Amino acid sequence: MNLTAGTLQELWVRREVSPHGWFLGFGAEEGPEVLLPYGEVIGDRPQVGTEIEVFLFHDDKERITATLRKPLLVLGEMARLKVADFHPHFGFFLEMGIGRQLLLPLKQFPLERKNVWPQTGDELFVVMKQDKEGRMLARLAKIDDFAPHIFRAPTSWLHEWREGWVTDVYRDGVFTLIDGGVVGFGALGYIHEGSMIHPLRIGQKFNARVTQVREDGRVSLSVRASKETGRLEDADRILAFIKERPGGAMPYSDQTSADDIQRRFQLSKSAFKRALGKLMKEGLITQKGNWTHLVEAQQADKPDSQSEDDSN
C-alpha cells in the first residue's frame, strides 16, 4: 500500500509528536508514515490507536502530508472547481476545498487564443491526475469524462432558457454542460459561433436558449433571443446607434461585410438585415449605397418649401 497524493486513506494513528502533530501509517507499527500536522486537524483531536480517514497531498516542501479537510475531488475524479488565481508561466490555480490550490497547467489552453482563457471566479470541469513526480495536477475534462454523469436532455427544455458552463472552445463554437438542477448532473450542449453575441471563454457561466433537443440527448443553444424578440431588440439597438451618430447616419448597410457587422454590432449579417428591414418598414431609416440614414434627419436637412412659398 502506498501513500499517494490525491487519495483518501484510512490510516492508523501511531503516535503524537509535539510540536508537529500525529504520525499515521498502514497498521500500528510497520511501514511508511505520514505526518498529520496540528494545523490540518478539524473537529476532534485524533486518538492514538485509532483509524482515521485523511486526504494526502504534497506540502510546500514536497513532502507527503495528511489533512482532515475534505477535498472537492480526489485522484481520477471529475469536479467543477473555481479559478482562484493565475500565473502566466504555470497556469490556473483552482480551489479544491483543503486550503490549498490545484494547478491546471497553461498547456491545456490554446496559446494563440488568450481571449478564451478562464478568468478568476470562472468554474472549470477538471479531472485530477498526477505528474511524473506523483504531485497532484488538473486537466480539463473531456467528453468521455462527462459520460458517466450526464443525462439526456428532456424535450421539455426546448425553447427554455437554461444555465450552464463552457467546457471547451472550438473555432466555430463552444461545448457546454447545462445544469440539470434537481433532475441530475446535467446535459451536454453546443453553442455555434453564429448564436453568440460575443465570444465565450472556457469556464464562463451563461444563460442560453435551447433551440434543439437532439436525438442523442444533447442540446443546441443560442444566447440570442428568438428571431422575433431578437429582431426587436437588435432594431432598437441599431436605431439608438444611428441617433448618436453625426448627421443621423452610419456607414453600415445591407452591403456591409459580415465580418464588419460582427465586429461592430456583435450580430450575424442575417440578424442585422432583419433589424434594418424592420426599421425601414416602419419608415425610420433609409439606405443609400453603403450608408444608412435616419429619415427624420434627412427631412430636417431638406429646405422648407412651404416657407419659401410663403416668403414669395
Describe the protein's architecture and organization:
Residues 159-224 form the S1 motif domain. The protein has 312 residues and is α+β, with helices and mostly antiparallel strands. The protein has four domains: 8-67, Beta Barrel (OB fold (Dihydrolipoamide Acetyltransferase, E2P)); 78-141, OB fold (Dihydrolipoamide Acetyltransferase, E2P); 152-222, OB fold (Dihydrolipoamide Acetyltransferase, E2P) (Beta Barrel), CATH 2.40.50; 227-301, Arc Repressor Mutant, subunit A. Helix content is 18%, strand content 36%. It contains six helices and 18 strands. The chain has helices at 143-146, 227-244, 258-265, 269-281, 295-301, 305-311, and strands at 8-17, 21-25, 33-37, 51-58, 64-67, 78-87, 91-95, 101-105, 123-130, 136-140, 161-170, 173-179, 186-192, 205-213, 219-222, 249-250, 285-288, 291-294. A five-stranded antiparallel sheet has the order 3-2-1-4-5, with no helix packed on it. Helix 2 (227-244) crosses helix 4. The protein is elongated. It starts with 7 loop residues before the first strand and ends with a helix. Residues 305-312 have low confidence and may be disordered.
